[in-house]
Amino acid sequence: MCPTSTVAMWDERVSNLFRRNLQPTLTYWSVFFSFGLCIAFLGPTVLDLRCQTHSSLSQIAWVFFSQQFCLLAGSCLGGFFNKTTRCSLITLFTSTLLISVVFSIIPVCYEVVLLALVMAVAGLAMGCIDTTSNVQLVQIYQKDSAVFLQALHFFVGFGALLSPLIVDPFLSETNCIQSNATANATRNLKHIRKTIIPHQVHNTSAFHLEKEGVAITQVSYAFWIMALINLPVPIAVFYLMYKKGVVACCRRKSTPLLPADQLASEVQMTEIPSDPEKAEAEAGGHGAFDCFSSPKLEDASFPYFAVHITAAMVLFMSDGIIGAYSAFVYTYAVEQPLSIAHKEAGYLPSLFWAFIMIGRLVSIPVSFRLRPSIMVFINMTGVILTFLLLLIFVYSEVFLFIGTAFLGLSLSSIFPSILAYTEDILNYKGCGTTVLVTGAGLGEMTLQILVGSIIQSQGSYSFLVCGTIFGCMSFWFYILLVCSHRMYIRDASEIQQKDTTHGDSGIPYQ
């Protein structure tokens, strides 16, 4: 059979599968848009929220930490709620509704502790969304999930890009706390906004802003607008719950049989279990606690653990690079040796995220033709080469902008590609998604703190050195993942041969 006809058959099969799961897929994509909307608004609004709570920059910086830490905790909890589709949909409905509630409540949080608690709730909801949406798409499409995961992560980038645009018209242009000390003061608030880094409390000491006085800010309107924009998402999830018969008070009748042509195109015909919920729980949806408490782990092989650990470390490094670069590229640009003007340097984080979104959009058709493992290799190579070129042309202002764009493209599809690759290795029966999402969140939080501390002590040049080291480490862990994959296949074939020889029907946990 020629490659062209094989690709055409594959495209037709995936298209039929997509049409069958159109509503769930669109719903999970919209949920990730909600995730992106919530993840990007805090940075631009930090000074207005400081005025609203009459707090110092050091105090308001801890709001970042509460959100990020609870996002990590929510990623673990999200895995626990993924045993069945019913539990997953209830989790997504609750989480997306909570995000709209959080957007509505933030304008009335006049104490920094209350604001931190509200952002902690938002972080938990975001973590649950992150794990649950990825798990559900992987379970629906399995070996064809790479394309749909690329689209899923495009929507989080779209939400993260839209959120600051909504907020920007409502940000204060002058000090939003009016007092005698600040009446005639003029401050470059845009520079301060770009310099405040999540989790880096020590970098706020250079700025002194008044805490006492009348707070004048219009940022509340931005939060209410985002709450309304997000509201259709929980409605869409609720409608999917209704269609799936999850809502007890309005269960639907059995869905009609598929048309004959669709049935003929599907090759995944299996026996229908007597108890779908039980069968689904056994087939997949491992929670974070199930992963490490199952008695079956006593018989798990070394390659099984190696695949989980190395894949998680790849995302620990790559997502950590994304978080650190977006947080510190402005600080690096405005200091020696480049000393770029504050206004021009302010475009760098936006350029970085814009090309991440473009890269994820381009990766959707590319993933039809390339295997996830090949895409990851290309992305990793691009990350290392970009950092090396940035080190070589360290005095070039133009190349910093070019390198930022290429780095965004290179990093864009690593997460969905690694996720698809790992779940394919584990035959969609492991705990890959929960472990990988948790590793990515931990890396994003940890490497920002580490890079910020190194820049503080060693200077801005260490920013690119750290990126190069993390990029090389990420590539090294990817090589270990490929080796673990080969070991896993070898062990699985040996066990299969042994079972065939002895006539043993039991399959050990791999």
Description:
With 510 residues, the chain is mostly helical. It has helices at 3-20, 22-39, 42-53, 57-80, 85-105, 112-141, 145-167, 189-195, 219-230, 232-243, 260-265, 276-283, 288-293, 302-334, 342-345, 347-369, 372-392, 397-412, 414-425, 432-458, 462-502; strands at 177-178, 214-215. Helix 14 runs parallel beside helix 20 and helix 19 (414-425) packs antiparallel against helix 20 (432-458). Mean pLDDT is 77; it is low at 254-258, 262-285 and 504-510.
Q: Helices and strands, in N-to-C order?
A: HHHHHHHEHEHHHHHHHHHHHHH
Determine the fraction of residues in helical runs and give it as a percent range.
over 70%
Rounded Rg = 24 Å
Head-to-tail CA distance between termini: 34 Å
Record the strand order, biggest sheet: 1-2
β-strand amount: under 5%
- Report mean pLDDT, rounded to a whole number: 77
Number of helices: 21
Contiguous runs where pLDDT drops below 50 for at least 5 residues = 254-258, 262-285, 504-510
Structural class: mainly alpha
User: What is the overall silhouette?
Assistant: globular
The count of β-strands is: 2
* Main beta sheet strand tally, sense and closure: 2 strands, antiparallel
